[in-house]
Design goal:
489 residues, alpha/beta, seven-stranded mixed β-sheet, 32% helix, globular
C-alpha cells in the first residue's frame, strides 16, 4: 500500500459519509475520499486483510483503493477531532501507557495522546499546558523556542489536568500545591519518558511535560556541530587516563548530550564507565547508569562515594551542585579516574572561579582540570528556504571587532518543511579551554581569570564563544538573530 499522511486531512465528499468514530477507532480504518466511481481508504499498518475484503464488498461496485497510515497518526487525528466532554477516569494499572492506542468513549484520553504524539513528531523537548482566563494554551518547545500550537476551551482544563495527574500517579484532587511525577509511554515501539511538573497559577494550573526519548539515536561528537579545532581539543582531553572535564552553560544548552557523546567516543568494552544522572535521559549500551533520588537520600555526592568502590575508569556526574560533590569529584580525579561533569558558568575559563568559590584550593583545580567546554545551542537555518543577504552594518561592525572575514550571511524565511519558522535543527556554539603546563601554573598561582583567558586565546588556540558564533553566521549555519538571542557580545 502507498503510505500517506493525515496531517491537515479533512474528509469532504458529496458521495458518502465518513465512517463513524467507533468504527474508525475499533478497526483502524478511515475514509480518505469518495467519488461516484471510487473510494480511497487508509488503514493502520498491519491491518486485517479480511477487513479490506469486507470494505471492498461494502463499497461495491465502486473501486476501492487502500493506503497505509501509522497507528500514532490515526490516534493524533482522532484526538484532534474528538468532541470534548468530561469523563470519569480510573487509576492506570499499566506501567507503560500506549499513546498510539485509540480509546473508545474516552475523548480526553485521545486529546492528551494527540498532544503528546504531535510533540514527539515535532521533536519537542517540552510540552506546556497552561490555563489562561478564557482558554487553555498548548505550547511546544521546539529547538529551544516555545511555540503555541493550539488553544482548547477552558472548560475541559481540569479534566485534562486530572487525567495527566492520574497517569503520573499524582493526587488529582490536589490543586493548591506543586506536584512532580513521571509517565512512561510507548509510541510505535519506542519508549518515551515524560517528567511531569504541575504548579498552581492564577487561572488554574501550569503543567509541563519534559520529553526524554530513551530510544533516540545517540549523537556522536562529530554530529554536534563543533569546529575541527575544538573537536580535536575535546577528543584529546577525553583520552587522558585521569583528570576532570567540565561542560558549562545554562539549562537546555545541550551539556548532557555532549557528555553522552564524549562517553560514546570511548572504548566502552574495555572500560568500566558509570554515570550518575538526574534523570537518566538516554540509555547507552555497555555503560552503568544510575539515577539519583533525593527522596531516599541518594544524592550525587553520596552515590559518587559508592561508585568509587566499583573499580571505574570513567565517572560521569550529571552536575556539580555543591561543595561536597565538587571536592569529591576533584579528589576522585586525583586518584586516577576520569571525571566528566557540568557546571553553570557563562564561559569556559570561569569554571576556575566557580570551583574556588566552592572552597576548593587552586592547586587542586590546577592538578586535575584538563578541559572545560562552554556551549550554547542555536537554531540552524533551514537549508530549503534560507536566504543569502549582504552583511548589515551591525554585522560588519561585529565581524571587524572579532577579525572575521566575509561579506554575506543568511536570513530565515520559512517554508512547509521547517513549519514556517525558517529554522530546522540546532547546532553548538562553543568555547573550549584546555589546560597546559603554563595554565596549570597560572591557576595554582592564583593569576586573574582575565590573564588566564588572554594566555589561552594566544597560546592554546581558544576561540571565544562570540567569535565561534559569528563564524557560524558567516558560514551560513545560523543567523545573526539567533546568535544575539543566545550569545553575549
Amino acid at each position: 500500500m502507498e503510505r500517506i499522511s493525515l496531517k491537515k486531512f479533512q474528509f469532504n465528499s458529496a458521495f458518502g459519509e465518513q465512517y463513524n468514530r467507533e468504527f474508525i477507532s475499533r478497526q483502524g480504518a478511515i475514509k480518505i475520499s469518495e467519488t461516484a466511481n471510487e473510494v480511497r481508504i487508509a488503514i493502520v499498518d498491519g491491518g486485517d486483510t479480511q477487513l479490506c475484503h469486507e470494505l471492498e464488498n461494502y463499497h461495491y461496485p465502486k473501486k476501492t483503493i487502500f493506503s497505509s497510515i501509522s497507528a500514532a497518526e490515526l490516534a493524533t487525528f482522532i484526538g484532534e477531532t474528538t468532541a470534548i466532554n468530561p469523563i470519569d477516569t480510573k487509576q492506570e494499572k499499566e506501567h507503560f501507557i500506549a499513546l498510539d492506542t485509540i480509546t473508545e468513549g474516552a475523548p480526553v484520553v485521545n486529546i492528551i495522546n494527540a498532544i503528546c504524539i504531535e510533540a514527539i513528531r515535532l521533536e519537542s523537548s517540552d510540552i506546556h499546558i497552561e490555563a489562561h482566563a478564557d482558554s487553555v494554551h498548548i505550547r511546544y518547545r521546539i529547538d529551544g523556542v516555545l511555540r503555541t500550537i493550539k488553544k482548547i476551551d477552558k472548560s475541559v482544563f481540569f479534566t485534562i489536568s486530572n487525567r495527566i495527574k492520574i497517569m503520573a500517579n499524582l493526587n488529582p484532587l490536589e490543586q493548591r500545591l506543586p506536584q512532580d511525577g513521571r509517565i512512561s509511554v510507548t509510541i510505535e515501539n519506542s519508549t518515551i519518558d515524560l517528567r511531569v511538573s504541575v504548579i498552581p497559577v492564577a487561572n488554574g494550573e501550569s503543567i509541563v511535560l519534559r520529553i526524554f526519548n530513551t530510544s533516540a539515536k545517540l549523537l556522536s561528537l562529530d554530529e554536534l556541530g563543533f569546529y575541527p579545532q575544538d573537536l580535536n581539543a575535546i577528543k584529546t582531553a577525553v583520552l587522558q587516563p585521569f583528570g576532570l572535564i567540565l561542560l558549562t552553560g545554562p539549562t537546555g544548552s545541550g551539556k548532557t548530550t555532549t557528555l553522552h557523546a564524549l562517553i560514546a567516543s570511548l572504548p566502552i568494552s574495555e572500560m568500566k564507565i558509570i554515570t550518575i544522572e538526574d534523570p537518566v535521559e538516554q540509555l547507552i549500551s555497555g555503560v552503568n547508569q544510575v539515577q539519583v533520588n533525593d527522596e531516599i537520600n541518594l544524592s550525587f555526592d553520596g552515590m559518587l562515594r559508592r561508585v568509587l568502590r566499583q573499580d571505574p575508569n570513567v565517572i560521569m556526574v550529571g552536575e556539580i551542585r555543591d561543595t561536597a560533590t565538587a571536592e569529591l569529584a576533584l579528589r576522585s580525579a586525583l586518584t586516577g579516574h576520569l571525571i566528566l561533569s557540568t557546571l553553570h558558568t557563562n564561559d569556559s575559563v570561569s569554571v576556575i572561579t566557580r570551583l574556588e568559590n566552592m572552597g576548593l584550593e587552586p592547586y587542586l583545580i590546577a592538578a586535575v582540570l584538563r578541559c572545560s567546554v562552554a556551549q550554547r545551542l542555536v537554531r540552524k537555518v533551514c537549508p530549503l528556504c534560507g536566504k543569502k543577504v549582504s552583511l548589515s552594518k551591525q554585522a560588519q561592525s561585529l565581524m571587524t571587532k572579532y577579525k572575521i572575514t566575509g561579506d554575506s550571511m543568511f536570513e530565515s524565511v520559512g517554508c512547509s518543511d521547517c513549519e514556517y519558522t525558517g529554522y530546522k535543527g540546532r547546532t553548538i556554539i562553543s568555547e573550549v579551554f584546555t589546560v597546559d603546563k603554563t595554565v596549570e601554573e597560572m591557576i595554582a598561582g592564583r593569576q586573574p581569570i582575565a590573564e588566564i583567558a588572554r594566555y589561552a586565546a594566544v597560546h592554546t588556540g581558544m576561540c571565544s564563544m562570540a567569535k565561534n558564533a559569528l563564524q557560524k553566521v558567516i558560514d551560513g549555519i545560523t543567523t545573526l538573530h539567533e546568535v544575539e538571542r543566545e550569545v553575549l557580545f
